[in-house]
Amino acid sequence: MKKNNYIKIAKKSSSIQISELRKVNKIFDKNFVKAIELISNCRGKIIVAGIGKSGLIARKVSATLSSVGFPSFYLNPGEANHGDLGQIDRRDILLVFSYSGNTIELTNMLRYANRFNIKIIGVASKKDSLLLKASDVAILMPSVKESDPTGMVPTTSTSITLLFGDCLCSALMYKFNFSKERFKIFHPGGSIGQALLLVKDVMLKGKKLPLINYKSNILMALQTISKKNLGIGIIVKNKLAIGIVTDGDIRRGAKKFSAKNNITGLMSKKPLFIGENVSAAKALSIMSEKKITSLLVSKDSDFKRKKIFFKPIGILHIHSLLKYGIK
Description:
It contains 15 helices and 12 strands. It is of the alpha/beta class. The strands form 3 sheets. The protein has a 5-stranded parallel beta sheet with strand order 2-1-3-4-5, with helices on both faces. β10, α13 and β11 form a beta-alpha-beta unit. α1 packs across α7 (156-175) and α2 crosses α7 (156-175). The longest helix has 20 residues, at 156-175.
């Protein structure tokens, strides 16, 4: 076979799937709405099940549900027949995927759920299948043309089932006003978590702030800087930041000033600061550009107005950003 034929076959397969996947819109009917409402009112877990290719899709849908705040886990129907049915509680909901709907391994799980009145959302392509007959909410998948050369291997059928699962999760996210803030809670690590981190998530605050009264002398300021271990002090007057001073400023000024001199003689006025809801990645970019290791943090209102004097609510240190893996 010529190499260009591989490309032709791949494009044909892609074309078939793209065309067939449009049939997913047939699924979004009153039963789809019932499924959303059933999951929304669930007081337990969403247990997602499936065998073979449907099992792989079930795992993915379960993972997505958990990642957006709906407690969920995957249960293998085959293993459930050997003791794992005990993991299913009366408050739970079964979301079962089976393209044929007649997979023999599902039988005992469905009987168990029906016996104990555990709600089932069944997803299958056969209207008279065992799964859909046993389901409280029956989701009938459309018949689709497989995209492989034989027209027999699960390709389009798995794609449309996965697409349905993603659409189900998207609808649930919309219903519960799911936001980037909530997404961040469930994804504290990884590149997604890093991208969503805000300055307020990683800044030092409260008693960790190296606040120095503007009336303090150099010795008192040095003691505060040493105690907070950040190499910098925030000079405040009436709770507003009027300047900053670093341990390097004090060392360089030691020849000109005595320890009893006022610290304002060494401070840098108009310190750089950033709003608490700015992304941590952007803050790091500013620090890199300005070649500084610390950045003061203010309320967003003060930052947007570019106030000269502002109330410092935190301090962003390079070590904190590195700790969270911000790059």
